[in-house]
Every structure is written in C-alpha cells, then in structure tokens.
Fold this protein.
Amino acid sequence: MLPTIAWQDDAVVMVDQRKLPTREIYVTCKTPAEVARAIKTMVIRGAPAIGVSAAFGLALSVRRSKAAGTKQLTTEFLKDCDLLAGTRPTAVNLFWAIDRMKRVFSERVLAGASVDDLRAIMLAEAQAIHDEDLESCRAIGRHGGALVPAEAGILTHCNAGALATAGYGTALGVIRGAIEQGRHVRVFADETRPVLQGARLTAWELVRDGIDTTVISDNMAGVLMRDGRINFIVVGADRIAANGDAANKIGTYSVAVLAREHGIPFYVAAPLSTVDMRTPAGSAIPIEERHAREVTHVGTTQIAPVGAKVFNPSFDVTPHRFIAGIITEKGVARAPYTESLAAMFGEPVAAAAR
C-alpha cells in the first residue's frame, strides 16, 4: 500500500496529495508548525490521516523542544496542541488524536516522567495511533466487504482510501476487502468538485491496484443509478454524530438522496475515532468553508468570472435516515444509531444522546 504518512529520522514524511496524480512528491515536516501547514493546505487530507498527522506533529513538539524541564515543555506542548487544533474544524479525528496525546502527556508528567522519557513516550503513542488506524481500516474492509454483492457496481464520492488514512482506507478499504473476499467489482468514482479528490486521488489509488475504475462527473451519478449500473454505494466521513448523521465531502448528501430514490444501499465507512458522541446530531457539526479559488479555478486555470460570488463549504451532512449502515472496525452499526453506536463505545444510550 502507498505510504501516506510515516515517521522517518525525527521528521514526518507525507505524500503531497495536491500534486497527484501527475507527480508523486513527498513533503518532510520537521516542526509542528510545518505539520499544521500541511494539514491546512491539504498536503494531507482525510479525517483519519489528519488525526495521525496531528499525533506525529505533537511527537515532534516534544522531540524537537529544547526545554530543560517538564514545566516549560508542557507550555510548548499545549501551545502546539492549539496550533494543530486550529487547522481543520470538521474532521473530528484531529481533535480525538490531540486529546489522546494530551491525556498521555499529562498522565506521564504527573507520574514523574523526565523530558527524555516524554520524547520516547509521545513518539510511541503517535506511532500507535498510526498503526491502530491501519488495523482499523483493514477491519472495516473485512466487515464492509461482506456487505458487497457478488457482482457489484460501486459508487464512491471523494477519497476515503489509503491516502485519507494511515493506509488501506475506509470506503476504499471496503472495496479492497470485497475483492479479497472474491467479489467482482467495478468502481465509479465521482470526480468530486471542487478539488477533484475522486478523479485525482481515488482513481489513482484504484488504478494502481488494478481495480476496474471509471471516473464520472458528479452530475452523472443519478443516470447510472437509474440504468442499474450502480448497486452499492460507500463513502467515508469526517465526523459522525451520535445519532448517525454523517459529515463528508460536499456532494455526499446529493448522492444519498439519489440512492434513496433508486433503492440502492448507501453506507458510510469510518473508524470509531470519527464518531463524535459529544455531538448529538449533524446540525451541530461545524462545517469548514474554504477559499473561493478552489471553485473559481481548476489548478491554475480560471473558470469563473472575476466578481462572481462563491460559496465553498467543504462538507455537507447526510441525515442518518439515508444511511443503510455505518461500517466500523467493530462491525456495522444500524439504526437506531443512538443505540448501536453507543453500544460500540460501551456507553449507555442516554450518554450517547446527550
């Protein structure tokens, strides 16, 4: 699998997803600020990959620090936590990873760990987050692959593959899992305007794997559903509320509505780190709005007139009633999601719905 992100020689190395599919270039980040910039500018993207990046960024914070004692180190570490938390507001994996790193740091400081101890401990925790994400994606692939028909025309939107995770992928993990289980699949990849993650990234991944892949423009999905060429839909997510509402790349909601009209099962694939049990419903999920240039230009080519207004939300929210199931590393959650998701976390329903 493509190495999306890795720790090498006390630095974080990641593939620059802005350059794909024409150039495979790797970016080396040596400071938390460089990791934050890479997340903000979408050198790396996809909720699980963003969480892994943040964890490695905080490992850098500790390992690169010149602090002589834990008091100064704590001040620097918390400042870098805030810096990374300010990069992408919708992807909850970012905050999940930061909170986990904070918790480990605080526990070890209280236990009397030295600065040198913390340098080793925080790197080990970041690497564990990376490795656990990879294993979670493989488990998602196993659970989701079993849902795929023996002969499947699969539609996916945006990129929820190896590039969006530590490797293997969530939605594309389901596709890979289905193939490993003997299903015959052909994939239709929505181009996914405005940044074209489907055409650039999903298609690139699948072609590398030798998987039958057809790129379609976003407005072609409905007619393919009508004509019976699509019988299974799976997407990723950047945040899932406790009631099962799921935020994913803009345009996902439209796909879900079309799927309902045509009687096609619509699944969301994501690790439990993407489920935000503190958010009761999708209406409470913050939606990032990005720069107008993403809409007015394709690459360096301007396609809209100067002076036109632009609305560019990066995500939309699919209501849980349109979702056939949420595929996680612990299995497939089904409606009512306030109960099934809570059970996966071992929480009482009342806590999940608060």
